[in-house]
Amino acid sequence: MVGLLWMPLLSGCWDSVELNQRAVVAAIGIDVAGETDYEVSLQVIVADEIAGAKARGDTPIVLFQEKGSSLFQAIRKASQKVPREISLAHARLVVIGENLARRGIGDTLDFLERYTETRPTMKMLVARGETGKDVLATMTAIGRIPANDISGKLETSQRLYAGDYAVSLDDVIRSMSNKGGGPLLTGVKVDGRMEQAPRKNNVDNILPEASVRITGMGVFRKDRLVYWLEDDQAIGLSIVNNKVKSAETTLSCGKKGEVIGIETLFSKANVHSLMEQGEPVFVIDLKQVGAIQEAECPIDLKSPEVMKSLQRQWAVETKKVISSTVREVQRTRSDVLGFGLELERSDPAQWKRLSSRWSRYFAESTVRVQVTSVLKHTQARTNPYSRGDSE
């Protein structure tokens, strides 16, 4: 009976914090400070500037910075500067400075995974040649909140270009357990005048003096950044890891520098493993479907033979891109292509024999690339104007 009397007092949200008492963090920047300390930058949304009715015309975000011997300490110390309770539950991005990435992100991942407010779906990036603070302090023209602007660029670039793709905290944590490998992280940098980047008038011009750009994929060995994949090599990485939603390929044609532009509509790569003389051999089998989006040279696109020739040329070009990517990744001795996982699935006994020295076997393994290409159509036009034919 006494217990029943106490039950109403035990119910309810005793530890709740109202929304107007929270400082909502949109993105987190993490950098090194000295030999062992961290500097944390918190991009906090100014709710009144977003709501509209109470807006004063000020910046929609404020960047708070604090240093500490641990990430947890730095964030707690930041409460001395932030008038509300810091909330990381809605943070969309974590931007790590390149110096920290090269030193190692293991302790950073420990905090991000352990802390109860952070979400495993947060996107992780590395600030190339810069600090996470520099990236998050840049005012952006499209999207009032820079974190949303960067997130949108990341998603759009993955959907249309394939030279980089989004990597979540959960992806990074899972890849840390791969023997002989490590995570991949997207690169981001500030182009233009760095001193102008945090100023509000940076976005008052048609041509902003500073802007944020998504660029490249960082290869990690264990928890340390060791190499950057750029342009075609980054696209090759996306192809092998089946991250391509759409991509572009430029094929040369004619003698005056004319080109054919192809859009990838479908791409699927399968990796198979086999053993030859006790050594692992991997076969990358790619099937891709595309369409011609641009034609500068005077060729007959109505001809089946011409289309078959372009398909073969596209296959050869794609094979070169993939082979170049594989060679560069093998030089890093970090299996970010998932070859070890494929060998473990297909031949557990051989994986058990090789896994303890997988970095060496991965770097020295033979890789064969097979590409099947199909061009479905030429969009709204067949022959190019340079051919002189009427449609």
Automatic annotation (TrEMBL):
<dbReference type="GO" id="GO:0016020">
    <property type="term" value="C:membrane"/>
</dbReference>
<dbReference type="InterPro" id="IPR057336">
    <property type="entry name" value="GerAC_N"/>
</dbReference>
<keyword id="KW-0472">Membrane</keyword>
<keyword id="KW-0449">Lipoprotein</keyword>
<comment type="similarity">
    <text>Belongs to the GerABKC lipoprotein family.</text>
</comment>
<dbReference type="Pfam" id="PF25198">
    <property type="entry name" value="Spore_GerAC_N"/>
</dbReference>
<dbReference type="GO" id="GO:0009847">
    <property type="term" value="P:spore germination"/>
</dbReference>
<dbReference type="InterPro" id="IPR008844">
    <property type="entry name" value="Spore_GerAC-like"/>
</dbReference>
<dbReference type="InterPro" id="IPR046953">
    <property type="entry name" value="Spore_GerAC-like_C"/>
</dbReference>
<feature type="domain" description="Spore germination protein N-terminal">
    <location>
        <begin position="15"/>
        <end position="189"/>
    </location>
</feature>
<keyword id="KW-0309">Germination</keyword>
<protein>
    <submittedName>
        <fullName>Spore germination protein KC</fullName>
    </submittedName>
</protein>
<dbReference type="Pfam" id="PF05504">
    <property type="entry name" value="Spore_GerAC"/>
</dbReference>
<feature type="domain" description="Spore germination GerAC-like C-terminal">
    <location>
        <begin position="215"/>
        <end position="378"/>
    </location>
</feature>
<keyword id="KW-0732">Signal</keyword>
<dbReference type="InterPro" id="IPR038501">
    <property type="entry name" value="Spore_GerAC_C_sf"/>
</dbReference>
<keyword id="KW-0564">Palmitate</keyword>
